[in-house]
Amino acid sequence: MNKRKLLHFLAFAFFAHTSSMAQNAVNAKHEFSIQQCIEYASKNNAAVKNALLNIKVQEQVNRGVTAAALPSVGGSAGFTDYIDIPTSLIPGQFFGQPAGTFVPVQFGTKYNANAGVQIQQLLFDGQVFVGLQARNTSIAFQQKNLEVTEENIKANIYKIYYQLVVSKTSIALINANIERLQKLEKDAKALYQSGFSEKLDIDRVSVQLSNLQTEKEKTINNIAIGYMGLKTLIGMPAREELVLTDKITEDEIKTNIVNDTAYSYTDRKEFQYLSLAKQLNEYNIKRYKLSYLPTLSLSGLYSKTAQRTEFDFFKKGDWFTTSYVGVNMSIPIFSGFSKDAKVKQSRFELKQTENNLESLKLSIDNDVKQAQLNFASAIHTMDFQKKNMALAENVFEQTKKKYDAGTGSNTEINSAQTDLVTAQTNYINAMYAAVIAKIDYLKAIGKLP
Question: How many domains does the chain have?
Fold first, then answer.
């Protein structure tokens, strides 16, 4: 194989590999249950990822608070070349000269070097110590924010997922109606050709059939939009295929419901979140109160200095040591009432959080009561619409038999078909409403799985 053929072969192989990878990316297929959708969203939804990053940010903030309580060690080194040595004026009396005269004298050497280590250790600072106490609560606060975000997303995933599942039943019912009308249209054409019916009868059936086919197209389009919405919610690329594997039945809607009307506010993630916010407000008040107290710190230094008339620091010569240990106290005396303002501000913020907690309790009570009523009503409506749909199917079948036997009119069968479609639509809507009511109820009592 010559060089040109080899290059062509490699280029073809690279193109084929790249095309294969692109095709695989486009054709990626996911068959997800509801729980798999929730797990996928926990890793790919932007709001969840940002909530996770908030935890990481808080961890670094906590590290900064911890650092304030740890020793601070630093080193220093310096070299100075005095091109002109500083001059000082000494009173002339020291040298036997008249009073009022001064003698210029140069102190020091041309070359100076120093190196040392300093250490600082905070012994007491009320604000830092409160910050250390609040670290775990701060992390718990961000983690609870993550849980609140995940639960809100989870509830929406449940609703969209089961809406799409119920829509499969809707498509199945529409297809069954189309088959009925197609058969009815065929029979009407046969009767018309035999002279037992009018052309108008065929046209009426054709109109109904056309309406159903249009409704089917609209439903399919709405389902496609629903899938796009679900993909966006869980963070899945639009080009990838999503297949829903779970099914929903009336029995599943009615099961796994907590019948006990007793519930606890603490089961709600929002209540837990606000309770942690209250704890942080209390830490804030404590922090600002302790800012009135003095701060105490320990400092130390160890350094070496050398002075030379020539640059010979790396040869033998004296290096003079300086070292000390000191305790420093900073006493706040007056800060323009800023500390008092911060204490009062933090107390008002605590009161706001307490008010929000009380308001949330009322909201939870209302949510639970409404959810209970809505769910009970939705179940009753679903059962009623199921019976009504069965009745409409029976009426249509009996009317069809009469029509086939020649004792029924085309108007009667068209009316029966219209009633059947209406009953089926009402049943689908009632079934989906029951699913939503169940999700809202479980979320209201803090038991959403």
Answer: 1
